[in-house]
TrEMBL record, chain A:
It comes from Marinovum algicola. Residues 4-241 form the ABC transporter domain. GO terms for cellular component: ATP-binding cassette (ABC) transporter complex, substrate-binding subunit-containing. This is Carbohydrate ABC transporter ATP-binding protein, CUT1 family. Keywords: ATP-binding, Cell membrane, Membrane, Nucleotide-binding, Transport. One of its GO terms (molecular function) is ATP binding. Belongs to the ABC transporter superfamily.
TrEMBL record, chain B:
It holds the Pfam family BPD_transp_1. The lineage of its organism: Bacteria, Pseudomonadati, Pseudomonadota, Alphaproteobacteria, Rhodobacterales. This is Carbohydrate ABC transporter membrane protein 1, CUT1 family. GO terms for cellular component: plasma membrane. It is found in: Cell membrane. SUPFAM superfamilies: MetI-like (SSF161098). InterPro entries: MetI-like (IPR000515), MetI-like_sf (IPR035906), Sugar_ABC_transporter (IPR052730). Residues 66-277 form the ABC transmembrane type-1 domain. Its main location: membrane. It comes from Marinovum algicola. Belongs to the binding-protein-dependent transport system permease family.
């Protein structure tokens, strides 16, 4: 197991990148702590698979270095890095038995048969497939195949990190939970460094200690699920995470006062004089309807989703979502919306402004 | 689900039945007709029963032709299949050169058989052919019209030249369908090049390779035009393959009865082999699912 350091890393698929836009992965410095479980979250094409392939050595970065336990491995081939990777589509060797599949990485590294047999038995038990070790891998279900490819990764004791590239995409919904729980348990029991790429926020938030959110080739925030929820550093994090995402409303901010189309709003903190694109970000959970106080609002639609009601509304022509409790009043005379000032974030040019205590 | 039964549906099959009847069944029946009768000219026919079949089964000439035919098919399969796979493995996977290779390789497939025969017939001639003349000038004795081995080498090389592309194109299609993840996983598992081929590429190519083998076997087993144009079956009977011998017998000697009996057996052999292949292939598919 290892700490993985990304030092000034960037990658472009073009041979001679001119501007920042040419980079699929923009400059990045980050330490992946040994033994932690990370999720790399972002919409498709945001560079998360590029980053994963750089870590696994399938891609050489066009700039910067990558270090495993402070050893430079930028030019080391995949095999030498001793990592394991589980791909989106399960990769198994069809003609081999489950046992031979699991033994394959060890045999290729010339380990003796007694050790191989012992490890395969252990891993077979770990992934819950000991009873079908002698079956051919061909014709197994997708989730069984995915377990085999996970097992093939974990069979080597000295593996530096386990990488997952959207491993649950082709798995049936009811098996997804089971596999995710199993992964979490394996991480807990064995403490591998794990990096899990996904575009599914539920997967990321339930799996990882720390979530790395990527947007347009850039890491926009690294944080615990709670941090991502309460203080999104970038408006993208705000509306990508959460269901529905954060409301973003253009405003003018002066000190501790925000002005939305002339209506004033007190803020918890002071922000000085902000210029450029200034917006307020409020999660639907921290907004509530009111009769008299707050901003004037026009309710368009109320969706009852069981646990709570989802109010689709409009503030000065901007769509916003409000989550109201089951027994909250959403009648026609609720013409205003109030934000919980503790959880109103201010964004300048999409990035969060921390502000000073007022 | 309950199936509706409607006997009128048979009418929908009728056009196909008529077409197949006229294109295959009726011509075949005339052959069957000849195979059980004898004639002394004058359009007079006498019932011969299975006599011709019995005679053919004992005919050394036919067994020799069958032996040569099997040897020919076996040799070209043994060369074309591995060579085709080898070529496919070394072709550029994408980009301009990939398309270029594909076009270049399809060229031999577009040339009519008798033209291929003519090309090699001239190519191999010692007096004016580039190949024959060069070999001769290098002091290698080569003469496909007189030397049995030279004749065989010539028709085999010609067939390999003509048809390896087909195998390569099919194998290439099989290779292209393998997702990148397999190769990446193999790298991570530290699999050697041979193991990548043995455990990833070959299993994934199996389906198309079966089709390639079947096509090449049937085609080579029925080959007529190319060797006929190059060697005419000679020297002696050295390259007289089945269909060449059949034509000699039927049209050269006008032995319609024996030739017809033999055609039917020839046909049955091909049918049998195709059936075996079909069964093996569908079983492979079942295992896949």
């Amino acid at each position: 197991m290892a700490k993985i350091t990304l030092d000034n890393l960037a990658h472009s698929y073009l041979p001679k990148p001119q501007s920042e836009d040419d980079y699929a992965l923009k400059e990045l410095n980050h330490d992946w702590q040994d033994g932690a479980a990370y999720a790399l979250l972002g919409s498709s094409g945001c560079g998360k698979s590029t980053l994963l392939n750089i870590i696994s050595g399938l891609l050489r970065p066009s700039q910067g270095r990558i270090l495993f336990n402070d050893r430079d491995v930028t030019d080391a081939p995949t095999a030498e890095r001793n990592i394991a990777q589980v791909f989106q589509f399960p990769v198994v060797y069809d003609t081999m038995t489950v046992r031979d599949n699991l033994a394959f990485p060890l045999r290729n590294r010339g380990r003796d048969e007694a050790y191989v047999a012992e490890r395969v038995q252990e891993i077979g038990a770990m992934i819950g497939m000991e009873h079908m070790l002698d079956r051919r891998a061909r014709g197994l279900t997708a989730d069984a195949k995915q377990k085999i490819s996970l097992g093939r990764g974990m069979v080597r004791k000295d593996v530096n990190a386990l990488l997952f590239d959207e491993p649950l995409t082709v798995i049936d919904p009811h098996m997804k939970w089971e596999l995710r729980t199993q992964l979490k348990k394996l991480h807990h029991d064995f403490g591998h460094t794990m990096i899990y790429v996904t575009h599914d926020q539920t997967e990321a938030l339930t799996f990882a200690d720390k979530v790395v959110v990527m947007y347009d080739g850039r890491v926009v925030q690294i944080g615990t699920p709670e941090e991502l929820f309460q203080t999104p550093e970038h408006t993208f994090v705000g509306y990508f995470i959460g269901s529905p995402g954060m409301n973003v409303i253009p405003a003018e901010v002066n000190g501790a006062t925000a002005r939305i189309e002339g209506t004033e709003l007190r803020l918890k903190r002071g922000y000085g004089d902000l210029s450029g694109k200034v917006e307020l970000g409020v999660r639907p959970e921290f907004a509530r309807l009111s009769r008299t106080e707050g901003l004037p609002v026009t309710v368009r639609r109320v969706e009852d989703v069981g646990r709570h009601k989802l109010v689709r509304a409009e503030v000065f022509g901007h769509d916003i979502n409000i989550i109201a409790d089951e027994d909250d009043d959403v009648s026609a005379d609720m013409t205003h919306v109030v934000f919980d000032t503790d959880f109103v974030n201010v964004y300048a040019n999409d990035w969060r402004v921390p502000g000073e205590a007022a | 689900m309950e199936k509706t039964v409607n006997q009128k549906a048979w009418f929908l099959v009728l056009p196909v039945l008529i077409l197949v009847a006229f294109s295959a069944v009726i011509p075949l029946m005339t052959v069957v007709n000849y195979s059980v009768q004898d004639t002394f000219g004058n359009n007079q026919f006498f019932w011969a029963g299975l006599e011709w079949f019995a005679e053919m089964l004992e005919s050394e000439r036919m067994w020799n032709a069958l032996g040569r035919q099997l040897m020919f098919s076996a040799i070209i399969l043994a060369i074309e299949i591995p060579l085709g796979i080898y070529v496919a493995l070394h072709m550029p996977k994408s980009g301009f050169w990939s398309s270029f290779c594909l076009v270049l390789m399809s060229l031999p497939l577009l040339i009519p058989w008798n033209v291929v025969g003519t090309i090699w017939q001239i190519f191999g001639r010692v007096d004016i052919g580039l190949l024959g003349y060069t070999l001769d000038a290098l002091g290698i004795s080569y003469n496909y019209t007189q030397d049995t081995l030279d004749a065989w080498i010539t028709i085999i090389v010609m067939d390999v030249w003509h048809w390896t592309s087909l195998v390569a194109l099919l194998a290439f299609a099989g290779l292209k369908s393998i997702p990148d993840a397999y190769y990446q996983a193999a790298k991570i598992d530290q699999a050697s090049r041979w193991k990548v081929f043995r455990f990833i590429e070959l299993p994934k190519m199996m389906g198309v390779l079966m089709i390639a083998i079947l096509l090449r076997f049937m085609d080579s087993f029925m080959i007529y035009t190319e060797p006929f144009v190059v060697t005419g079956g000679g020297p002696g009977n050295a390259t007289t393959l089945l269909s060449i011998d059949l034509v000699k017998m039927a049209l050269g000697q006008f032995d319609l009865g024996p030739a017809a009996a033999f055609s039917i057996m020839y046909f049955l052999v091909i049918l049998l082999v195709s059936w075996v292949f079909y069964t093996v292939m569908t079983n492979l598919d079942k295992q896949e699912g």
